[in-house]
Hints:
This protein has seven helices and seven strands; from the N terminus they run βαβαβαβαβαβααβ. It is an alpha/beta fold. The protein has a seven-stranded parallel sheet, with helices on both faces. It is about 45% helix and about 15% strand. The model has no long low-confidence stretch (mean pLDDT about 95).
Amino acid sequence: MNTTLSKTILITGVSKGLGKALAEKFIQMGHRVIGCSRSEAITESLQKRYGNDHHFSAVDVSDYNAVYRWFKFLQTHIPNAPDFLINNAAIINKPHPIWDVDPNDFGKVMDINIKGTFHVLRAFVPWMIQRNMGVIINFSSGWGRSVSPEVGPYCASKFAIEGMTLALAQELPSGMVAVPLNPGIIDTDMLRECFGRTASSYPGPSEWANKAAPFILSLSTKDTGKSLSVT
């Protein structure tokens, strides 16, 4: 393993979309990426592609025991706790008014978007606190600060991310950072579920990552506790 790589960056939900684009961009920039996804096939493919300097694992973040096993594995396979922890893994509900949302669909959104973020924080933040350093980014959304019809469960989950992250920022030691980050509007599979063909008028994940990655790396203690956006 190359111990000279600049930063160690943990990202959840790296199988596609923003997570995959960020992982690839950070690797291109010379950083070590630790990624997870529910897809074993995709994580195995990423591992083969990028080699032993990076770690890609199949992890369901909605399962705390799975997240904790991943944490224990990484403790023995990377030199230090992550410098950056990016909670990206999320899903959106099928568009419906609240009263028509399937209860199982609602539950899955909460299990991944909110509980999944909490599980990763609970497992990894104490390790980061031992070094009294590190940046924690929980992806929010424009729909975590405003709302639209038929995506009520997703809006609720992202409003929760805002609140949980701002509370976390007040709990961390002074050398650490916690930020709820709105990535902006990007042409992803998730957006296409809501916007249909018009999603293609927005930048794709790779184009977005070109500006998002440097923005994330620039975050410092002056930013902690602020609701930020990639612009």
